[in-house]
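Progress note, sequence design subtask.
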């Protein structure tokens, strides 16, 4: 039934769309009106709306706001992947080092991150506690401080807790 309703909607939309499309000429004064009408008719169908760009000149291309945000998101995603890789690398080192002798370290570390995320600890207290539990592992302390200070601390704690 849902598919039938979708096809009926498409046919009705096409009955409005086709007359507007047939009046479209690149240099016709009503071009902007036709483009506005097409945007209105296809507002819920982004793939079709973007496909309509094939018929438009470069200056009249339709850009969906979410597409602009998508480009911004893709730029940020590389940074996010780097943060995730750094966090994963740190947690792998921590788990590897504490596997035999200091088995409580990973649990204590996660408890500290959980308390910080819940607002029960300040950044300064987190630095002190992590430095205390990683006392003999200067490289891990440096990795943690670099990661924690370079990024948003609460987001860092959340990411470290996920791993």
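Output:
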């Amino acid at each position: 039934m849902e598919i039938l309703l979708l096809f009926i909607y498409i046919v009705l939309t096409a009955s409005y769309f086709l007359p507007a499309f047939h009046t479209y000429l690149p240099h016709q004064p009503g071009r902007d009106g036709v483009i506005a009408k097409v945007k209105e008719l296809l507002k819920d169908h982004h793939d079709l709306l973007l496909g309509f760009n094939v018929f438009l000149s470069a200056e009249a291309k339709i850009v969906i706001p979410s597409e602009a945000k998508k480009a911004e998101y893709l730029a940020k995603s590389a940074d996010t992947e780097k943060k995730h890789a750094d966090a994963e690398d740190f947690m792998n080192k921590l788990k590897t080092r504490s596997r035999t002798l200091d088995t409580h370290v990973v649990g204590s570390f996660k408890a500290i991150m959980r308390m910080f995320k819940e607002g029960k600890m300040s950044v300064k207290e987190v630095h002190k506690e992590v430095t205390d539990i990683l006392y003999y592992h200067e490289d891990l302390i440096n990795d943690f401080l670099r990661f924690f200070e370079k990024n948003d601390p609460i987001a860092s704690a959340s990411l470290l807790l996920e791993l």
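Residues 46 and 64 are 7 Å apart (CA to CA). Work on this subtask will continue into the next period as scheduled.
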